[in-house]
Amino acid sequence: MSRTIERNSSCKVNLLLNILGRRPDGFHELETIMQPVGLHDTLRFERGGSGVTLTCNNPSLPTDSGNLVHRAATAILSAAGIQDGVRIHLEKRIPLAAGLGGDSGNAATTLLSLNELFGNVLTMERVNTIAMSLGSDIPFFLQSKPAVATGRGEKIQSLEPFAALRGTALLLIHPGFGISTAWAYRQLLRFPAALNGEPGRARKLAALLAQGDLAAAAASFYNSLEAPALEKYPLLALYQEFLRKHGAAAALMSGSGSTTFAIARSHDEAAKLEERVKSKFGPCWTAVVPV
Question: Pairing mode, if any, of strands 222-223 and 4-22?
């Protein structure tokens, strides 16, 4: 049995994030469409040592139980009754507090990889249960397709790749600051329409994307959390206005932000848009990735 595994860990954008009110348990009911993005962190897992030892190339990230990777590893070892230790190295490339789900992807990759490393000791149902206990976005990253997520985001229905996005590319823009997810949700109390969205938007958008008409689908892209985020950070609204003006088929903030993404009809168009953004707004983190 192999003693070392190395895996890439991807991220996502939310093509739609529709909040449907606050639940009695304190979470928010929502419906969202998540699209996998081919931008990766890399994790290396090695059996050995005692307990969970985590290292990371980014010194700003905790390497103890404050990191989802560490908590995921601890949960897998505990659930499977494994006494062996593991050493994990996380090579971080995805921006932090960016609305891209990078940490959730890292946690899901950890769950899958350690289960494999120790001989698939847990069923996928058990792995999914652990994922749900760790964070709402994590179950999405246990699979690799677009998906509609409901509940607090943990109920996943995988979808086939969207016909409307075939051949397109994403331009991701991170402004250099993060937005706290908890802050964004708290602020929704000031925006009743955003807090209590109209149900059914996710199914409608998924159907439009499946039909292949990107222009029709783009008009239905929506993110409830833009209401507080764009008010506090008007730069994000300026990004979107600029992107649409210069040919983006759609532009939206992903998750709770602060990443803005644009959908361009080709990789070349996305690359040209990236240059225009940097010329207009100055140096910032950007990435062009195929859909």
Answer: parallel
Residue with tokens 């890292």: 106
Q: How far apart are CA 233 and CA 190, in angstroms?
A: 16
Report the alpha-carbon distance of residue 33 to residue 99 in Å, rounded: 13
The yes-or-no answer on residue 137 being catalytic is: yes
Q: Collapsing DSSP states into helix, strand and coil, what is residue 73?
A: helix
Q: Is 145 labeled as catalytic in the residue annotation?
A: no
Catalytic option among 84, 137, 213, 280: 137
Tokens coding 208: 């439009």
Q: How far, in Å, CA of 59 to CA of 93, rounded?
A: 13
**Digit-coded pLDDT (tens) for 28-76:** 999 999 999 999 999 999 999 999 999 999 999 999 999 999 999 999 9
End-to-end CA distance of the chain: 35
7 near 30, Cβ under 8 Å? Answer: no
Catalytic-labelled residue, pool 12, 41, 92, 103: 12
Q: Is 73 exposed, middle or buried (0-12, 13-18, 19+ CB in 10 A)?
A: buried
Q: Are 116 and 28 in contact (CB under 8 A)?
A: no
Give mean pLDDT, residues 141-164: 97
